[in-house]
User: What shape does this take?
Amino acid sequence: MKQIQIITLLVMGILISSCGEDYLDPSPVSNIGSNGFYKNEAEVEAAVINIYDGLQLAVQREWALTEMRSDNSKTRSSEGEWAQFENLDVKSTNSTVANYWAMFYNVIFRSNSVLENLDAAGPSATQFEGEAKFTRALSYFNLVRLFGDVPLIDKVITPTDTDYFDRDSTADVYALIVSDLQTAISNLDNSYKGRASKAAAQALLAKVYLTFGNNYGEAQSLCEDVMDSGFSLVGFHDVFYSERSSEIIFAVEYVNDIAADSQDFSLEFTQDGRVRGLNYATPELVQAFTDFGGSIRTQESIILDAVDSYRCGKFISNSTANQQNGNDWIVLRYADVLLMHVEAIMAGADVTTSSTAVASFKKVRDRAGLPTGSSITKEDLLNERRVELAFENHRLFDLIRFGVAESVLGTFATANGIVFTASDLLLPIPEREIGVSFGKLTQNPGY
Amino acid sequence: MDIMILNYKNILKKGLGLISVFILVASIGSCEQFELPEAGSMADLTPPSANFSASLNGDYLTYKFDNLSTSATDYVWDYGDGNSSTDFNGANIYSDEGTFTVTLTASDKLGVSSTFSTNVTVVKPPKPVVLLPVILEAGFEDYNLPDGTGDGRDSWRTSLGEIMQITSSPVYEGSQAAKFPSDGTRIAYQELEVSVNADYVLTYYYTMKTSPAGSITVSVLGGALTNLANAASQTLASFKGTDQTAESTFVQVDLPFNSGNNTIVAIYARNESVECRLDSFSIREAD
Assistant: This one.
């Protein structure tokens, strides 16, 4: 009995002494809350990976907002909400647009979460900062080109931070994009292709400068930095089926047959998709392939699906589960950089004969099995980009950047019985975002 | 019991009917307070707002103006050169260079209007001219600088190394040429101002003693050279001359190069192991 009493006393003593402050303020063990998380490098890295998880969702319908609003692609059925894109008649209630907006702001939120917790990341803080700033810049670059002025959110905000709900000027948004990419360039190396890298930030910044149209020298140096970083062109087929090849600079990665890490756009590009075929080639694109594509690129890029109907030949899946496709989404690749190099040297002129420009142009043409002349016109370059990068979400932005969107899309619209106005070049701000903005978000003109 | 319930229902019905009549009367009576149609209407919260973007559409005289107005139905364009239009989008061909104020007046059916103006500057785009640089003391002759001074090599000096020597024989033309003694320590260096991304051909003549085996390399560098160690990475083009067949016969070299993303290029020459001579540099735009 005495022994038991002593043990009881000991146990009681332990229990009493363990009643510190922690006992009254326990951290949850079965749930993760943002307040108690981000304590060490591994946890901040989990937040970094989470950004790419957000990108896996965000890019999956981007082709609808870009390719299908250009003269490149359309739906197979021309029905419903999806047909709004090809008819250049996107409504502010369009759910694909609303989801795109929400998903990219989610990527921005995830990037901001990493940036606010860099103190806990130890020696990897520099790397993580570079990655988060790259993904934030990529998100804003997409949003500002698609929607114009957008809310600029550079920290983690809560639903009561209404000061952040109104639209900021494109100039302010671009200022953040440029500074984020410059940080990414100085903080990152070229270790990854599925995560942000120095070359990815350089290539993206080059594109930002080309979009400004007044900083061609900087754009050229950035392209040349990437060209000196060991990238090369691979076989045109291998670009899409040999993942993380030497041509890929940045891709959003997916894996076959894993629900959480796969995509379904490969399926939606076929008749087996839920909408019976999206992002199908327009007759104008098929004609462009005949005129400028060359056989290698044409047979790889468009596939005859039915009489006079061509579907996308890129990103064809070999997954077992047909909605769980593993083809990576290519954001930046070397051929794009070579053609940007030509664009930078052309520097807004109508033609260039510079041998450095011709050399870069020739690399892309050589792979396509096509000859190269001694001079390149703006139209040559635009056509080359169209057939080289078809279905990769470049066409609409290229048309706008080259200053020909109104004339090209105007002609395309007239030929197809569509009404085009210049205000169609910007998407409507999603109605549901306006609805929850306390009246702060205003609509774009024309909607 | 049944009858009583029925009675209650009747009373209820009658009561409701009476109330309805009252409401009807009240409604009719209340209409008289709102005879003026404006009285209950709201102010126009979305008055017209004119806006447009101007862009070239063809040659430098042809402009198009994309209408970005909101809440408007009627548009009047004044192109600033006397032309006007009432189309939704504007378009104008100007007859000559000048600055024109383009004004769009957008109005709605309430008669509210808004105007927006912007200036377009019609200017003939300059033909891109390739800057042709001047190589100073290109033939290494005395008193050849623009101000009439110079020892034939003043323009070729650099703080990065010792300047080459001057020889009077053999020369390609004139009375002097550059000489690089066999120890390979001497340098010739001159910066040139060029157009970016332009193709040039640098022409020069060299000769060297027949022995021992050696070479003279002339390089064109992108940008100014601040450290000899960077010479290789800055090289845009270079030629290594090794023709040792005759010590007084000059060999012509045409070295094509593209200036790349540089407004300055530098000619940089040095030799290895054998005494060499350079003469008569010239530069031209590539065909």
